[in-house]
Amino acid sequence: MGRPEGNLWASFNNGNVHRVRLGDVEEGFAKADHIVEGTYSQAFNEHAPVEPQTSVAYIDGTDRLIIHTCSQDLYFHLGMLSGLLALQMNKIRYVGGTVGGGFGAKNDIHCDHVAAAMALKIRKPVKYRLTRREETLYTTKRGMFRFNFKDGVMKDGRIVARQIKSFHDTGAYAGMGPYAVEKNSILVCGPYNIPNIAIDGTCVFTNRPPASSMRGFAIINGTTAVELQMDKLAEAVSMSPWEIRMANAWRNGDVSATQVKIEACAAVEVLQRAAVLAGIELADRLKTMSSERR
Questions:
Q1: Is the domain of 132 the same as that of 147?
Q2: The domain boundary residue, chosen from 138, 160, 188
């Protein structure tokens, strides 16, 4: 666990900021025809599964702790419980089943440790279940994000530089917040070939409920922001939203923000198919584009 500096997570490789760098972003801005900036933010969300967090625990005839759980991540939680209860893993039998609604909310322990501790204490079966109010007030949420984009773009629509500063509200405890920032920083530029990139991700502690996973964990947040920014770029250079995306989409052999070589790419073909399904008639030059060549 990192020791916070003020209210910032301070255990990234670069202290309280997770940095991703490719090329020279200032050089890219200097040669760009347009500089386009945008700020995008998202509130935190409650998962609201029909079944709230619930756990049943008891001690069996061999003195082993049995826990029936709605966990989405049994073995991850088994390791946590072993440490929390000071029991070897083979002294705990974790029983899962059909999760039903979870959406990421049940990737965190909310009830299992409480039911288990009570069962160990009183040596009788214990059921612990949150009410809907408790579920809403006290469980983990999809954490808030804020993104500040600055892009350098040429008249022909090519993005030559992208700077992103992101801020993730992890709530009162770190939980998966730092991991979310790292994951988001890797992918927030989207499937676009940009030669100069500078990303600074910050994880912020607040007095809100702890942040954790929720559908498209830490990815959908960045995807929403980057696609809104792409629409803004299209407007700035008088191009259609389809054309600017296809002009910048990854081709096989391109390099991502983290310097990974892109292989088996089909971004252009996906856009072409999406246009067909949406009833959009693309220009002939867009129909003939391919992920095999630029």
A1: no
A2: 138
